[in-house]
Amino acid sequence: MSRFFAVRFSIRCAVMSVALAVQACGGNKPAPPKACDAACQDDIALRGIREMMKLAYNFTVQGKPVGAQDATMPCLPTGSVRVSGQASSNSKQGTTTVDLSYDFKACAYTAAIDATPEQNYSLALTGTVAEQGTLAVQPSTNTVIQLQSDDLTVSGTVYQPTVDYDAADCALAATQDGNSVSGTLCGRTVSFVF
Amino acid sequence: MRAPLPNPALPVGRVLLRVLLVGALLLAGVLGARSAGAQATPSAGAAARETIAPKPISDLTVPYPEGASGDALVVLTLTVARDGSVREAVANSVNEPFSSRAIAVALTWHFEPATRGGVAVPVKIRFEVEFHQPEAPAPEVVEPEAAEPAAAVRTPAAAPKVTPKAVEIRVRGVKVEPSRTVSLSRAEVRQIPGTFGDPFRALEIMPGVTPIISGLPFFFVRGAPPGDVGYFLDGVRVPLLFHVGVGPSVIHPALIDRVDLYPGGYPARFGRFSGGIVSGETVPPAADLHGEYNVRLFDAGALIEAPFDEHRGTVLLAGRYSYTAALLSLLSSTTELDYWDYQARISYQLTPKDTASVFAFGSYDYLGERTSTQTLTLFGTEFHRVDARYDHSLGSDGTLRLAVTAGLDRSRLPDDRFVRDRLLGTRSELSLRLSPDLLLRVGSDVELDAYDVQLNLGQLGPAAQSAASLFPTRSDLATGTRADIVISLGERLQLIPGVRVDYYTSNGQSAVGVDPRFSTRLEMTRQLRFLTAFGIAHQAPAFVVPLPGFQPGGLRGGLQTAVQQSAGFEYDFGDATTATATAFHNGFFNMSDPLGTTQTCPVSFANDSLAGDIGERLPSQRSGSCGTRFQAGVAGPDRSGGGGLGADGGGGNRASALAVRTNGASYGLEFFLKRRLTSRIGGFISYTLSRSVRTIGNQQFVATFDRTHVANAAIAYNLGRNWRAGTRVTFYTGLPKTPDPSDPSSTRLPPFFRADLRLEKRWQLTPRAYLSFIAEWMNATLSKEAVSTTCNVQGCQTQTIGPVTIPSLGIEGGF
Q1: How many A-B residue pairs are in contact by the CB < 8 A criterion?
Q2: Do B646 and A62 make contact, defined as CB atoms within 8 angstroms?
Q3: Does pLDDT of B183 surpass 90?
Q4: From the CB of residue B148, how many other CB atoms can be counted at a distance below 10 Å?
Q5: For strand B662-675 and strand A180-185, is the pairing parallel, antiparallel, or unpaired?
Q6: What is the DSSP letter of A21?
Q7: How far is B776 from chain A (nearest CA, A)?
Q8: Which of B243, B452, B221, B443 is nearest to B341 (CA)?
Q9: More confident: A150 or B36
Q10: SS3 of B451, please?
């Protein structure tokens, strides 16, 4: 959606696209796609978890009055997610402090096809993830949040071309600082950058 | 194709000049009043108003230009005034130094003026001046073969049927309309650096026009936002004028005869746009087989027109194709950029009074991102129009046009989202001369638009859904009727009162707009004219910029209204130089202007916080929104990574900006000085001093894209030996700036300056065929433009864009 509006509203985008066309700056011939090893797959899974939380937050908590939160949304094509807890905000700073719990029940989501292979996934989540910290409308202030789960199941496909992925009953401990997310999933080190 | 003329007095030497009065004219401007004088069987009334073509009474000789070589043919359109003088001479194409020489000499010619009903009237006539290279160096004076040019006047598309009496002319029943500030012919535009020979791109040099960003062809016109400016081609609305936002126009330049700007108080025939009108006119059908072609670094185009059935009909084909996609594939593996356009016109003269024609044109743009398996659409637009027309001549009394237009507009967005509009419209236009001093113009039109919108609302966040809901699937109907009358009071004063009424329906809502118009023209002296224009204009809510299919539905918030008024002087300095000075004031009410209402908020840095990017802030109807990044008292968005996944933020604010309505005003002075660019030394200076403000509730603020000073200047010079060079400079004031705590005195972003260059070498291959090499560079100074500021506790930093620069090498040819 943001891409939808970004393109519509961004004059800069149009200008730069033509500047690109006439200025002959660019890269080389496309290289064959790289293989995605286990670490690469875990990183994509972490991206999927975080983006599904972001999606759930924006559809259930964003724009709601501050205070106690409790809302459930259906996932497409299957499953649901319940978001509950507390949220407070400072609109001048552009920050929202959250202490939320995301309860995923076979919640499925497929990322929009992206030209970057590492940003493609189709996953389903089951389990509960806790989110604590501050979400900021960057770049004014930094987002700093902690993600924690004791029992999270992630299954589906990652990467482009797709690779099957399955991680059952895993612990998640990760931190987002700005746009960087890193930590452990199933005891393995994982990270990605938005 | 050319009728020989008697030779009055023979020339000196062997250099041959044939001056042929070949056809009649166009009235630059306005009228529409066409008469097929001698071809029509005149009624008794018409006979009394029979039109007699002008006859030359001066020596029609044109010296062969010094330093030139080869043969050449120059086609001139001459405006012969009531006193028989040549008020204006314009070369239909540039062929230096021959064009300049022919123009300069033609401006000295005198005629017995054309008459209608015994009354002298101004007319336009078309001349061909044929130069032949001298066989010996001595003689430099050439002469016409002709003695009686009037005998050779003909319809351009009906040459073989010409008889000495077969005169068809368009009488200048109305002079240049007072509300039209600038008109540029294609021949002139070709000489303006930075326009790439494109008449529509020359809009940016016109007074009263303020660009959003340098090189980006979306304009504020006298303070009105880009979405409120209507673009028309032969009376047909054009939804998108330029390829990929900053590219060439979607119409082949050779098809455009001229482009007129009506910034306010425009004629009643223009409606449903409250900010200004840009009207292009296509060249009339030509009698001869002719064509043009061009090949540039990033695209190629061609136009060809040919007569058929003994010149009763003509068929024209034109188009352009961009090979940037192929080029980019060599340079970038992931970007795909593609565009093309086409135009086709077939015209057939059913009888001397009746002509049927079909004009089709369209455009396609695509910007995509390649993946290993497919190409993802980032943005795509296309539109197609088919306009079928029937024209009936009422002799010298006027003309009638009936037309039906069908069209398709479509814009594509990522994730298979699209907006599509299928439209069908009809229009009628009657121009009827009631007496030598009264010209009545009436018309009506109906347009039905069926919008099919697929934006996948379920996948959008709340703010995005709110914005997308402005564009529902529905059917819109708009119909209007209008009339104005041109009243000539004596030789010097002309009054044009008029009115149009439009009825709008959309998604169950309806509205009526009543738009009175009134303009005057007073010829104070032969050189000096005083012009005024007043008008009220209504428009349905508009999108940020014109895009195919992006028309907000439901008339939410009601019609926009503008009250436009201007007054100014126009002065002719000699034959080729004209100056205008105009004062204007526009009042805007209930305006939808997301761009212009980006309010700059004061900054205050809390001790324990960091300020954000204030350049991103937009106002809502609430005065308390300044300084907040989302609505107070609610949970903000999770915009990690910049948004998406339903996150509000900039999009949320922009969604409300789309719906917000404002009042406003703009006022200022415009100055335009032009020496015909096709002259040996030509150029122009365009300057606008203005202020544009917006009001939301009790808040009044300077509009986001207000620029106090906007200046353009260009010079084109004939270097000799068919070399022509030109340069153009552009300067304008920076945009309003958010108050900066670290620099309280600074209220504007830095100003912008750029220079464009153009160099052309032409080879005349035959009298009609030529080949040119053209090097052109828009923004040769590689200037960057300041667009916003970003602040933190250390202070504010200016954000720039660019340099947006377009170098171009290419060849052009024609025959």
Answers
A1: 255
A2: yes
A3: no
A4: 14
A5: unpaired
A6: H
A7: 13
A8: B243
A9: A150
A10: strand
Does the N-terminal peptide bond of residue A161 adopt cis geometry, omega within 30 degrees of 0?
yes
B window 416-475, beta carbon within 8 A of A: 417, 455, 458-464, 467
Side-chain half-sphere CA neighbours of B78 within 13 A: 37
Residues of B in contact with A29 (CB under 8 A): 333
A107-138 pLDDT, tens digit each: 998 887 777 888 889 999 999 999 999 988 75
In three-state form (DSSP H/G/I as H, E/B as E, the rest C), the secondary structure along B610-624 is CCCCHHHCCCCCCHH
- Do strands B229-233 and B276-282 pair parallel, antiparallel, or not at all (unpaired)? parallel
Kindly report each contact of residues B346-352 with a partner whose C-beta sits within 8 Å and lies 24 or more positions away, as own/partner.
B346/B313, B346/B314, B346/B315, B346/B316, B347/B157, B347/B285, B347/B313, B347/B314, B347/B315, B348/B309, B348/B312, B348/B313, B349/B157, B349/B158, B349/B312, B349/B313, B352/B36, B352/B39, B352/B40, B352/B393
Q: Do B631 and A91 touch (CB under 8 A)?
A: yes
For B218, the closest chain A residue by CA position comes to A11
CB B324 within 8 Å of CB B368: no
* Bridge-based pairing state of the strands A144-158 and A163-177: antiparallel
Residues of A in contact with B617 (CB under 8 A): none
Higher-pLDDT residue of A188 and A8 is: A188
d(CA B667, CA B224): 11
pTM of the model: 0.70
- Distance (Å, whole) CA B275 – CA B265: 10
Q: Exposed e or buried b for every residue in B276-311, given b needs 16+ CB within 10 A?
A: bbbbbbbbbbbbbebbbbbebbbbbbbbebebeeeb
Helix and strand element counts for chain A (H, E): 3, 8
- What is the structure's pLDDT at B11? 32
Query: Which is higher by pLDDT, B687 or B547?
Result: B687
Confidence at residue B330, expressed as pLDDT on a 0 to 100 scale: 66
Report how far residue B10's alpha carbon sits from residue B16's, in angstroms, rounded to the nearest whole number.
10
Q: Please, where are the H alpha helices in B314-361? A: 324-331
For residue A68, the distance in angstroms to the closest alpha carbon of chain B comes to: 11
Percent of chain B scoring above 70 in pLDDT? 76
Under 8 Å between Cβ of B603 and B739: yes
Q: Which residue of B has its CA nearest to A144?
A: B640
The interface predicted TM-score (ipTM) is 0.77
Contact between B206 and B687 under an 8 Å Cβ cutoff? The reply is no
Q: What's the pLDDT score for residue B20?
A: 32
CB contact under 8 A, A1 and B651: yes
| HEC sequence for B605-659 | CCCCCCCCCHHHCCCCCCHHHCCCCCCCCECCCCCCCCCCCCCCCHHHHHHHHHH
* Interface contact B636, partner A, CB < 8 A: yes
Buried b (16+ CB within 10 A) or exposed e, B378-387: bbbbbbbbbb
CA of B791, closest CA in chain A: separation in Å?
9
Euclidean distance between CA atoms B438 and B418, whole angstroms: 49
CA distances for A28 relative to A114, A161, B327, B328, B332, angstroms: 19, 21, 12, 10, 6
pLDDT per residue over B189-198, tens digit each? 777 877 887 8
Summarised one tens digit per residue, pLDDT across range A26-38 is: 334 445 556 899 9
Percent of chain A, pLDDT > 90?
53
Residue A56's SS3 state is: helix
The DSSP output letter for B176 is: S
| B contacts of A96 (beta carbons < 8 Å) | 635-638
**Rounded to a whole number, what is the largest CA-CA distance in chain A?**
54
Averaged pLDDT, A49-54:
93
Q: What is the mean pLDDT of residues B359-367?
A: 93
Contact list, A58 vs chain B (CB under 8 Å): 461, 637-638, 645-648
Give the pLDDT confidence score for residue A185 in this predicted structure: 94
Mean per-residue pLDDT, B130-149: 46
CA distance B423 to B478: 11
